[in-house]
Design goal:
This protein is of the alpha+beta class. It has 2 helices and 6 strands. The relative contact order is 0.24.
């Protein structure tokens, strides 16, 4: 499990028809936020559940928003977002 800060990642913004999707890139992987927590232990537990079910996810610490769990997107998901 990785615990990253905003300084560790490259934020990406992708325009969608109804909104703007915020993603981040870390070591050639693209991630999407799945949940947000007020404390680090809850974020770690949620990330652990994701890892146990086969998803690659990380915890991103943000001084303003708290802790967020982000899940890596697969190639098919990335292609669908770009379409």
């Amino acid at each position: 499990m990785l615990i990253l800060s905003r300084q560790d990642v490259e934020l990406l913004k992708m325009k969608q028809p109804q909104s703007q999707l915020v993603l981040f890139r870390y070591r050639r992987r693209v991630f999407r936020r799945t949940s947000q927590f007020g404390d680090i232990q809850a974020a770690i537990a949620a990330c652990r559940e994701g890892l146990d079910s086969g998803r690659f996810c990380v915890v991103l610490q943000d001084g303003f928003k708290g802790q967020e769990v982000w899940q890596a997107l697969g190639q098919d998901e990335l292609k669908a977002l770009k379409a």
